[in-house]
Amino acid sequence: MQRSRILGCLSIVALLVSAGADAADKPKLILQITVDQLRGDLPTRYYDRLGEGGFRYLWESGIVYRNAHHAHANTETIVGHATLATGAHPSNHGMVGNLWFDRETGFTTYNVEDPNYRLLTAGASVDANTEIDPTQRAARSDGRSPAALLVTTFSDELRSNTGGEAKVVGVSVKDRGAISMAGHSGTAYWFSKAGGEFVTSNYYLDRYPDWVSTFNSTKPAQQFAGKNWELLHRQENYLFGESDDRAWETDVGGFGRVFPHSYGDGSSPYFTTWLTLSPAGDELVLDFAKQALVEEQLGMDAVTDYLSVSFSSTDYVGHVFGPSSLEAEDNILRLDRTLADLFAFVDREVGLENTLIVLSADHGGPDAPGYLKSLGIPAGYVDPKSWEKESAIARIKASFNIKGELIETYEHPYLYFSADVKNDKQIDQEVLEAAVVEELSRFQGVSLAVSSSALRRGNLPDNALYRSVINNFNSKRSGEVFIVFEPNWFINDFDGLTVASTHGSPWNYDTYVPVVFAGAGVNAQIVDRAVQTVDVAATLSAYMGIKPPSGSVGIPLTEVLDR
Ligand SMILES: [Zn+2]
Fold first, then answer.
1. Strand 168-172 and strand 305-311: pairing?
2. 159 near 166, Cβ under 8 Å?
3. Which 8-state DSSP code applies to residue 524?
4. N or C: which terminus of the chain has fewer CB atoms within 10 Å of its end residue's CB?
């Protein structure tokens, strides 16, 4: 998939000449929507049952890129968000995974944790229940900031270009979904499961604006107490209407595997977790985003503002029930209503003709192995945490005279060697890495193992798979060996909890995402040309006639620029 860089440069120049500098042409608001785990096929899978004004508005009035993929190998939440925000690959933006092992501190690090800061809400830091989000448990500090993001975002460039006049706000259930998009210079708000309200850290603000305190004082989560997640339509009208109860679905703390899913009376320690793994999480984000738009006066003056809304329910529902489940189907139909609500609100407040909307996803997602096997499609589970005990690894340890542990940890998709092994001057690290790669390549479920020394050396096969591994490689954060599992082979252990499905591979089901631009006078069009998610930030910059983010390698999408 070689793409024309020269053509890309020419189109930027053309844009700068034609539209870039004319303030009257600029939208009042850029609304960037990221739906967590919204695989490219999902918005149109139930097209005949979508309502008006949501996905249909985007698909019928927007520019729809039907062949868009992430070009990095580790398709996880922060990796995809950071790529959409910066136009850079993880090799440059630095977010190589939700977690990585930090050689300097000797601990696993969570991507947006920062001990130099604290949350503004005391007690909101420790999540009530972290079972379905191990990244929260791995974090050692309650503080949050974008410090680990090594390049600028489009939102940073917008702020910078306007001398700080452009307002930038990022909202999500997940801290990493909000922080990544707001960049270094905007303000991020996310949902605290422990507090049942929206929070931020003192990296951004010294105190909450009054409107945030007022919003939280209404106890937004409590509106769901005593309610159920019910189906939107009659069950027989659903594709998965007759298969609600499937063995591979997860019952998280008694939320159950069949409709209706009860939120209980609000007293369960799982209450706010249940909200996030149902459409309620997206509805909370919608309410907060609307409030942010009005109170922060986004899109209300001549300077273009930026609002990022990252919806997380599709991801949690996918993990817990699988993307081909009655729950996931209903979630998409409800997300469609949430989007319609948001667009109608933006239309009233700012005008869709004054708003450039871009929607994409941080990654796709695989179907649950149980579902695949029910159709005769091979699938299975791997467990890298058990590899240390394999006889092949024992043989390597004996031949290199390694007495202690060889493997420090596996933080997907990287195997990190122990500090003792790394510091052992008797060991030729390159030879050891090669030996481990050779053995791991034979393990069941492993498609490809690549050592970091091989990635540094270069001269690897020039194909999409290797390129995606290279795009993910950051020499400070990546481990000694990169592992790619076979298609439809997964780790299913989420910090002790077995879930239906887990993304994070370079295979199509994980890289394939929608990219749609709408509003602000763009002309409806379907585009089947291959594009990459790095192109999104590059396109926004070119559209605004400002410089691309510092690490951006994306090519501006000419269909969006042709106005
Ligand atoms: Zn996920």
1. parallel
2. yes
3. P
4. N
Given a contact cutoff of 8 angstroms between Cβ atoms, the answer to whether 316 and 132 are in contact is: yes
pLDDT at 475 over 70: yes
Work out the number of other CB atoms within 10 angstroms of the CB of residue 498: 10
**Total count of residues recorded for the chain:** 563
Q: Are 59 and 516 in contact (CB under 8 A)?
A: yes
0.90 cut: is pTM over it? yes
Segment 230-265, tens digit of pLDDT: 999 999 999 999 999 999 999 999 999 999 999 999
Provide the token pair at 108.
Answer: 């696993």
Structure tokens at 157: 């460039």
Q: How many Å apart are CA 30 and CA 88, to the nearest integer?
A: 20
- The answer to whether 509 and 69 have CB atoms below 8 angstroms apart is no
| DSSP character at residue 19 | I
Using only C-alpha atoms, the chain has a radius of gyration, in whole angstroms, of 23
The rounded Å distance from CA 37 to ligand 1 centre is 6
Average pLDDT of the chain to the nearest whole number: 92
Ligand 1 mean position, distance from CA 318 (Å): 8
Task: Retrieve residue 317's tokens.
Answer: 């529902």
Q: Transcribe 224-256 into DSSP letters.
A: GTT-EE--SS-GGGSTTTT----TTS---TT--
Rounded CA gap, 325 and 331, in Å? Answer: 10
Rounded distance from Cα 81 to ligand 1 centre (Å):
12
Answer for the pair 191, 220: CB distance below 8 angstroms, yes or no.
Answer: no
Name the residue among 214, 151, 188 with its Cα closest to residue 309.
188
